[in-house]
Design goal:
alpha+beta, globular
């Protein structure tokens, strides 16, 4: 499991819903004090490199649609 901080300006609930409904990729939101602050990517058990690449590719498409604007080093990658 990898926890990722929800970027400033991004609605974490909207991101996890979009990933599930439009990209067939399930992310878990944060719990308790971390609700809305992180999302979690599960990669324990039967998770291949291709599964993780598909998740990252979907995030690349979904994040700008929910308010993420990249800045800094590597923003064009």
């Amino acid at each position: 499991m990898t926890a990722v901080k929800v970027p400033e300006g991004v609605d974490g609930a909207a991101l996890t819903k979009m990933m599930r409904t439009e990209y067939n990729t399930v992310l878990a939101g944060g719990q308790g004090a971390l609700t809305g602050k992180i999302f979690r990517i599960g990669h324990l058990g039967l998770a291949s490199e291709a599964d993780l690449r598909a998740c990252f590719d979907a995030l690349k498409l979904a994040l700008p649609r929910v308010g993420f604007s990249p800045s800094g080093v590597g923003a064009t990658a």
